[in-house]
Amino acid sequence: MTETARSEPRSPDRDTPGRRAGPALAVLVVAVCLVVGQLLARVVLRLSGVDGDSLAGLGLFNVVAFGPTAALLAAWVVLREGRPFAALGLRGADRYRRIAVGVGTALVGLLALNVALSAFSSDTGTSGEAAGPSVAPWQMALLLLTFAVQAPTEELLFRGYLLPALRERWGVAAGVLLSSALFAAAHTANPGATAGYVLLTFLLGVSLALWTLADGNLWRACAFHTVWNWAPAVLSPGDGDDGGQGTTALEGGTLTAAVLVLVLLALSALWAYRRSVQRVSAS
């Protein structure tokens, strides 16, 4: 590593014994884990007859697609690389505070998104037909549990496993941008994904990567990502990663509002990272 690397916050898995994959192998591992999980979920949905567009289908997909994905990643890290799975960012004595900060940041971000949508778009779901179906509290709770499988699994793949491999080889900036670009590329497989949706997913990935580096763990990123995906899913139709607007609704004022909010989130994450760098440099 370079001289400046010693003044940067620690990667989640830095200094952990074991063999770590290089960038090319890390990308391959992430891709294989994702593909296996996605294919398994589609087979299960087809065999079960559950409507994939329903809340039940969404919850089933979250668990069946991402539970095995996390298990595959765990098996690779523990059995092939000889590292504890917790080395991917599941450590840190301040986990509960980080989780609370992540939840709070997501709620503030979603509130800001709704305010921005009202300011930039004349068609933001104020009419009755734009509102999603009502969701019972027990359904909200169950769906939250399924997003607590889906979102942290993505964090483990892209920020816990891939980001350190890219950062160690090419530095922080390249690690953040490349891992976020691959995170966005993975979401192009979502039905109806548009260029605007991919852009927003990239910006979301930048924030999550910077928070991970600032904290040295995944707790804040996992909590934020879970709430960011879950709240729009239970309040309105559409995919959680685009702020609940749906992949086909991201255009004009709606896209402008969403980009603005996610840029502000990325700037706040950059500020958190820079503060961490200053603390490490001063110690």
UniProtKB/TrEMBL annotation:
The protein's name: CPBP family intramembrane metalloprotease
GO MF terms held by the record: metallopeptidase activity
Tagged with keyword DNA-binding: no
Pfam families attached to this UniProt entry: Rce1-like
Domain CAAX prenyl protease 2/Lysostaphin resistance protein A-like per the UniProt entry, residue ranges: 137-230
Transmembrane feature ranges: 21-40, 60-79, 99-120, 140-158, 170-189, 195-213, 218-235, 255-273
Organism superkingdom: Bacteria
Keyword NADP: no
Record's keyword terms, sorted: Hydrolase, Membrane, Metalloprotease, Protease, Transmembrane, Transmembrane helix
